UniProtKB/TrEMBL annotation:
It comes from Melopsittacus undulatus. This is NADH dehydrogenase [ubiquinone] 1 beta subcomplex subunit 10. One of its GO terms (cellular component) is respiratory chain complex I. It is a peripheral membrane protein. It is found in: Mitochondrion inner membrane. Belongs to the complex I NDUFB10 subunit family.
Length: 161
């Protein structure tokens, strides 16, 4: 009895067992059964990957001598210069494509105002395309570093005249 009198004196409500909320119970069970193991495995995988972190960047090739710098009969130098020329051609082709895509995106974005707002991109495309055409134009599908070098030599001779 003295307990009840103390409760009344301090206005403490009587103790009751709380009714469990089914949604809260389901959430807690799912947290322990599904979320905890998945989180543990993911964090473990991330720790393992952090230990063995590899950076994947573009492959960097060393610059080799140009075909004009190769000694006569040095076939390995010829091959390396040809491979270097092919990589340079692919890079230049991708540059032209990227600039072309930027111009297309600008035209799409600007709509009717494309002629005044995309003039910078259009001028850049003209310059890049002209540079690509000057270097690789008229070589055909089977063009190689030797024919490109000869084309460059002939162009330089014409400019001197």
């Amino acid at each position: 009895m003295p307990e009840d009198s103390n409760r009344d004196a301090y206005n403490i409500p009587p103790t009751r067992t709380p009714v469990p909320d089914p949604a809260e119970f389901f959430k807690t069970v799912c947290s322990y059964i599904i979320d905890a193991p998945v989180t543990f495995v993911r964090e473990w995988i991330e720790r393992q990957q952090a230990k063995n972190k590899h950076y994947y960047y573009h492959q960097k090739f060393r610059r080799v001598p140009d075909l004009s710098e190769c000694l006569e009969g040095d076939y390995l130098c010829y091959y390396e210069a040809e491979a270097q020329w092919r990589r340079d051609r692919m890079v230049d082709k991708e540059i032209v494509e990227i600039v072309r895509e930027r111009l297309g995106a600008c035209k799409q974005r600007e709509g009717p105002n494309q002629f005044q707002n995309c003039a910078k991109e259009a001028e850049l495309l003209v310059q890049v395309t002209k540079a690509y055409q000057d270097r690789y134009g008229d070589l055909g599908v089977h063009g190689n570093s030797r024919t490109c070098l000869m084309k460059q030599k002939h162009r330089m001779m014409e400019e001197r005249k």
